[in-house]
């Protein structure tokens, strides 16, 4: 008997809501994004609902928007991902913990070490969302005057990942024998010195931490450009993607999975999880009222600033009630930029309409009853649009509690979402194999290399 | 009435014991250094004993010793400091959490952000041990073929600290107003853009996290060279130092405190805490037997390797039973190197004798009864040798439990160590003032600079 396909659910939790008006919604915690007591409660609630993962996006700068827009959102102060996820690891037991780390503004040794450390602390629950960082303001915080060009960032990212995974394999899984009688803490035949020298990095190794419980923390990616899809097909195990609707989702899903087949990878070894902004009501009408009320808290300054980011150009001087003019190419994420331009063209939106949509939340949304939302999610699953979703909550705690208390039980009733965790690691939850150590065959007592 | 001077106690916890034989001692946890459940218990025990801080040293490489020596110690696998301390922050309430971070192999934006995040997560308990990293193997993990020269490292460190403290001051303490009615999450007049351009760093800012609860996390230093002492006198609030005996400790103490006076700093605003390796017995004889038994677990390979590190030269080919020959200058920490050379000369030690001392534990030790150890600590305090100690445990858990269960109550009985925490932050424990924001006077509604 074939088991019914199962949904995988991540919770998008940095920021806790992407909606600019979230913190002003009646009953919402204004400091939900930056209060550890709240975040601990959210993580524990998501774990009780059997979510696969708690996911933190990241930025290496205060977002590059005009201060009059910036001041209206909750993101200017946030916890750094490793400190927050490590604290949450100590107060949860099963839920996966996924953090973004940049291949452009960090170094492979630090990144390999921190994810390995989080994986050990959490008993195998870490995931690395590999990003190349498209925010040009980040470059200015790291001594670079010019942001690195898109394709160059991806070439660097690929070598960065080679080094990180090589460092994770520094030690055989059974290297640390701690033999009290002989006084041998580890077996030197099970230590590999990477000695990597490439175009971007020179890293000797070994890593000063044992191989992670998962072998490698789960490798996640989010890029949707041509280079991003190819890198995902080659190396990712989960993709958090922004897809505007099911048709686009199906094209993306088919594209990435067919790239994997061409590369000889099992397509089931990568889970595609589009972001879905979910607003739950007891009736369709109530749900739409909630969304409209939430949008009413978005200021035009904020909307136009978000639109400027999406386009990679300052558009604040445009006539709010005119159409969007031609916008030149920029260093902004190509896919996000094109989607916004397409909306304006296809739906004939004014600058103001576009700004309000982008400034609230502009991506895939599911606004409805527990039953209608479950219908949508099930349709994506059965029509090969996704393997699940990275769920975005509209406001906290009520928006999260609504999803956990009303939608999750409906998904469970339909048999498409787990009632209990079946394993302990993020790989277990996502149904991913544990990578073999490239330098040590299982039970092979001989080393490939040693110092 | 003048209050009696109080001892400050840090616990040196990475590694959990500096003694190479620690993990083999009968009853010790062989994995004490790399088992979160154990470390959580240790931190909670230290907190019940009212320790000021839990301190993690750090290395950015597997220690540069021959593998036959390396394999005998417990340090080749350790948690990364931020992940471990953040997890401990979630399961403790009062104890300070101090981590080492390198000014040579990290960047100011990342370091400022992580310590700010740890300070927020822990409610004001973070401390930054500023090191310039003297291990040349670390350079090879970060793409540098040659290790940076000593004075150059200190010049870079000074600018690094300027940038980090400037980033911590990016926001006034009351910048985040979260005014639900007006929709203003922060007050733009309370945001400062650093725009630093110096010899080593170009960092725009602002930091994407609110000012730390402590204003700045406590700034700790460990260098004892001329450049290290001067940097400490100018910038440090606690110094973890290696002093071989009380006379040397008094010279160091007087030197650093007088440097502070010359700079116009209050000498009480820096606490000097020498490392003290403490072995507790119910009798002097029992204590010395414990130390000797512990040393018996040190292998010659390990001792000679430690000696090579201390000297910055491979001395493994020397005649073990001959005297130490002249050793040329090296990139190793100058003060540590000189101390070892002085022992050999002054006490006429053979290479083997020197190796066994260095390989076990070579610094200040207090081996005795609760009463004799309290006498020694009190003498250091009253004779201006230190403001307390960074306590090093010989093996875990018994060596830690002995100190907490026997020595701490004796110190409390004498009135020189707290019975209860009087405040909530690490600054409160150490009696340090909270730094003013250099860009915003308290209650000043006008900004120095804004974007």
TrEMBL record, chains A, B:
Pfam families: Bac_luciferase. Keywords: Flavoprotein, FMN, Monooxygenase, Oxidoreductase. Residues 26-387 form the Luciferase-like domain. NCBIfam families: FMN_nitrolo. Belongs to the NtaA/SnaA/DszA monooxygenase family. This is LLM class flavin-dependent oxidoreductase. It comes from Paraburkholderia sejongensis.
């Amino acid at each position: 008997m074939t088991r019914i396909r199962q949904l995988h659910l991540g919770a998008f939790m940095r920021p806790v809501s992407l909606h600019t008006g979230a913190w002003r919604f009646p009953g919402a915690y204004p400091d939900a994004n930056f209060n550890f007591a709240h975040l601990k409660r959210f993580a524990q609630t998501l774990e009780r609902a059997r979510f696969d993962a708690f996911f933190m996006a990241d930025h290496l700068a205060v977002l590059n928007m005009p201060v009059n827009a910036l001041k209206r959102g909750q993101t200017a102060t946030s916890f750094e991902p490793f400190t927050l996820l490590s604290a949450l690891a100590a107060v949860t037991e099963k839920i996966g913990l996924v953090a973004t780390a940049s291949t452009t503004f960090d170094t492979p040794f630090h990144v390999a070490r921190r994810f390995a450390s989080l994986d050990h602390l959490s008993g195998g629950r870490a995931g690395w969302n590999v990003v190349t960082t498209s925010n040009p303001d980040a470059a200015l915080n790291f001594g670079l005057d010019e942001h690195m060009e898109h394709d160059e960032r991806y070439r660097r990212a690929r070598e960065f990942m080679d080094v990180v995974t090589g460092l994770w394999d520094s030690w055989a899984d059974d290297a640390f024998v701690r033999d009290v009688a002989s006084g041998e803490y580890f077996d030197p035949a099970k230590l590999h010195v990477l000695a990597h020298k490439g175009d971007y990095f020179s890293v000797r190794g070994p890593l000063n931490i044992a191989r992670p419980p998962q072998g490698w923390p789960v490798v996640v990616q989010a890029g949707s450009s041509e280079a991003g899809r190819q890198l995902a097909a080659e190396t990712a195990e989960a993709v958090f993607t922004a897809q505007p609707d099911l048709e686009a989702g199906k094209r993306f899903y088919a594209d990435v999975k067919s790239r994997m087949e061409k590369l000889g990878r099992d397509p089931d070894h990568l889970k595609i999880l589009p972001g879905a902004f979910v607003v739950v009501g007891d009736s369709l009408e109530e749900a739409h009222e909630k969304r409209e009320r939430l949008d009413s808290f978005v200021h035009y300054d904020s909307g136009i600033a978000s639109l400027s980011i999406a386009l990679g150009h300052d558009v604040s001087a445009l006539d709010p009630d005119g159409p969007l003019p031609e916008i030149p190419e920029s260093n902004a994420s190509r896919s996000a930029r094109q989607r916004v331009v397409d909306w304006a063209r296809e739906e004939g939106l004014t600058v103001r309409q576009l700004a309000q949509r982008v400034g609230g939340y502009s991506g895939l949304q599911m606004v409805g009853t527990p039953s209608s939302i479950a219908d949508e999610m099930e349709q994506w699953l059965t029509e090969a649009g996704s393997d699940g979703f990275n769920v975005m909550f509209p406001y906290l705690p009520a928006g999260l509690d609504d999803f956990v208390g009303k939608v999750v039980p409906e998904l469970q009733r339909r048999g498409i979402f787990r009632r209990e965790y079946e394993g302990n690691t993020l790989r277990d939850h996502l149904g991913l194999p544990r990578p073999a150590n490239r330098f040590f065959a299982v039970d092979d007592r001989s080393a490939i290399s040693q110092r």
